[in-house]
Amino acid sequence: MKKIIVPIDFSIYSEYALEAAATMAKQNNGEVLAIHMLELSEAVLTKDGFEQNQEAIFYLKLAEKKFKEFLQKDYLQGVRVTPIVKHFKVFSEISDVAEDHSADLIIMGSHGSSGISEIFVGSNTEKVVRHSNIPVLVLKDDIKIEGFKKVLFATDFSSESVEVYKKALAKFEALNVEVNLLYVNTPSRFLTSKEMREKVANFLTEAEGNTNRMANTSFVSNYSVEAGILNQASEINADLIAVATHGRKGIAHFLEGSISEDVANHAVLPVMTFKI
Prior knowledge:
Elements: E1 3-8, H1 12-28, E2 31-37, H2 42-45, H3 49-70, E3 80-86, H4 90-100, E4 105-109, H5 115-120, H6 124-131, E5 136-139, E6 150-154, H7 162-175, E7 178-185, H8 193-208, E8 217-221, H9 225-235, E9 240-245, H10 250-256, H11 259-266, E10 271-275
Helix pairs in contact: 4-6, 6-11, 7-8, 9-11
């Protein structure tokens, strides 16, 4: 993990993410790309030529000054930090920034969301998870990355998840954490015990050429995948939850939702998402 993106909105949550990124960068001789998204109002953007340019420059310089002051942290000493100020919405274009800079991880602080705001608005974190082509680590608190010892990785063990599973294992190896796998059996997609074990065995054989990780795989039943993940993470005292996401957008997302977004939104533990 050589290049880590951290979106900064000057909140305590983005500071949690920045400190975690600094720790990870030190461990891997990496670089932190600290990004502040300057969302200029329509009033500014619709002004004529010269006046618009002058006002936009004013707000940009103001943001750069505040950003520079925010980055004066003791824990950033010895860390390569590249500050980037952009004037677009964080959740949609951040994937372009990641691609332009060949970043391999996004770390975000989040307070989550719930109820009616979650249904109709959602959080910026949810939207980054939905759009990002690289893994996203979501933190809700001041978590010490070096304290990660045990990860619970939930997957549906389908063939299309094999490649993202391999990428996830590489990330976990870099973090030096114990990997525990999870299959959640739900009423809507019910499998017998034999069917579950066969499904996981076939998946592991395709992904790793053996079934050694069966010993570290849990099979749980619950009314929803999200509840199964959160309960099992508590049961094994996991330090980190990891899930894969299809990155559904538009009407498909509204109708089907996203397990990874829901888990990232509601979990107290850090959550790392991987896009299939």
